[in-house]
Every structure is written in structure tokens, then in C-alpha cells.
């Protein structure tokens, strides 16, 4: 089984599991909502040997790269939220498939893409979605994450990036336009 085939199989299995959980919650009257950020750690709380940095590129909407820190990350998903970002998943796949990201420092916290740009009902196409990239401590290039944000376990000194747009399924295109060094903890 190729890496690409394995990734697709994992995504199908994860999607089914998440969808089943969302349906079970819906049956009990619980509503799945957008995840709000925890109180973000100051960027100075992360160092090359402590914590992890997350960087989100809001360039497609006229913004810049916004960084966040989590001094003790447990997952990539928590790093994103503890770094000060809000997210919303798709209705089909739940919060684990991140469809929208926002941050209070850009456009009053508006999450992108906006509902007018993507209803976030189904998994977005490879031509328009938030791709997830990682660079462990000491790595100078980005790697397309083989795991979802809820499964990834950031290590000290790691930097993660979220980039919106077209990305190939194998991560050979659509990489961040900024380097890991430019956003890494100092």
C-alpha cells in the first residue's frame, strides 16, 4: 500500500468515525459548534526547546502570517486553539476536519473562508482547503503532515503551519510561502 493510499484510507476511516460521533451527538440534541481558542500563551513562552509555534497564513484574504504559541502542546489541534486561533469543522466530518480558521488579530477574528466562500458542509476540494504542514526542531523545510491535527503530537521546538489554497494530496505543491525559520521560536 502506498503512502498516498494509506492516507486516503485513514481519512475515510477517520471521517466515518467522526461522522458517526457527530450523528450520535445530534441524536442526543447536542450541537457541534466552532471551537474557540483558549487563552493564548505569549509568543515568548515558546523557545527552541520548549513549546511549539503555529503559523496561519491569511494571505488569500489580504492578511499576513499570524503566529501563536502553546508552551505545552498535546495535539496539533490544541496547539492551534491554545495559540489563539478559532476553528470550525465541516458539517460532514465534524471539528477534526478544519474548514475555517480565525484569529482576533486579523479582521476582528473573522474565520476564513467565510460562509459565502465555503458553506463547510462537505470536505473541501484539494483546490481550496487549509493544508497542514510541520517542521520539527532543526528542520529547515516544510513537510505535509501525514496525520490530522487531532492525531499529531507536536514536540518541543516544532513549528506548524496552516495554508489555504490548492495543495496536492502528496504535499508536493501548495507549501507555505514562508520558511520554518521565519516563524520558529527564538
Secondary-structure map with pairings?
Layout: H1 3-27, E1 52-57, E2 65-70, H2 76-82, E3 85-90, E4 94-103, E5 129-135, E6 143-144, E7 159-165, H3 180-183
What does this structure look like?
The protein has helices spanning 3-27, 76-82, 180-183; strands at 52-57, 65-70, 85-90, 94-103, 129-135, 143-144, 159-165. By secondary structure, it is an alpha+beta fold. The protein has a single domain (33-183), classed as Ferric Hydroxamate Uptake Protein, Chain A, domain 1. The strands form two sheets. The chain has a five-stranded mixed β-sheet, with helices on one face. It has a two-stranded antiparallel ribbon with strand order 3-4. The longest helix has 25 residues, at 3-27. The chain starts with a helix and ends with a helix.
Tell how many strands the DSSP assignment holds.
7
Please, how many helices? 3
CATH fold field value: Ferric Hydroxamate Uptake Protein, Chain A, domain 1
SSE order, as H and E? HEEHEEEEEH
CATH architecture, by name, is: Beta Complex
Q: Describe the biggest sheet? A: 5 strands, mixed
Taken together, the total number of domains comes to 1
Rg from alpha-carbon coordinates: 16 Å
Kindly report the average pLDDT value: 82
Tell me, what is the CATH class? Answer: Mainly Beta
Give the low-pLDDT segments.
Answer: 1-33
User: How far is it from the N-terminal to the C-terminal residue, by CA?
Assistant: 40 Å
Strand content: 15-25%
Helix content: 10-25%
Amino acid at each position: 500500500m502506498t503512502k498516498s493510499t494509506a492516507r486516503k484510507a485513514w481519512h475515510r476511516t477517520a471521517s466515518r468515525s467522526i461522522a458517526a460521533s457527530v450523528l450520535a451527538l445530534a441524536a442526543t440534541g447536542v450541537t457541534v459548534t466552532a471551537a474557540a481558542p483558549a487563552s493564548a500563551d505569549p509568543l515568548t513562552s515558546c523557545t527552541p526547546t520548549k513549546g511549539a509555534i503555529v503559523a496561519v497564513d491569511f494571505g488569500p484574504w489580504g492578511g499576513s502570517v499570524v503566529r501563536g504559541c502553546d508552551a505545552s502542546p498535546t495535539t496539533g489541534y490544541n496547539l492551534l486553539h491554545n495559540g489563539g486561533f478559532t476553528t470550525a469543522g465541516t458539517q460532514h466530518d465534524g471539528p477534526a476536519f478544519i474548514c475555517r480558521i480565525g484569529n482576533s488579530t486579523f479582521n476582528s477574528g473573522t474565520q476564513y473562508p467565510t460562509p459565502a466562500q465555503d458553506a463547510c458542509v462537505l470536505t473541501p476540494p484539494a483546490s481550496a482547503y487549509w493544508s497542514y504542514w510541520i517542521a520539527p526542531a532543526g528542520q529547515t523545510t516544510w513537510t505535509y503532515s501525514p496525520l490530522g491535527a487531532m492525531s499529531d503530537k507536536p514536540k518541543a521546538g516544532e513549528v506548524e503551519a496552516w495554508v489555504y489554497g490548492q495543495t496536492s494530496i502528496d504535499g508536493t505543491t501548495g507549501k507555505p510561502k514562508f520558511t520554518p525559520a521565519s516563524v520558529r521560536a527564538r
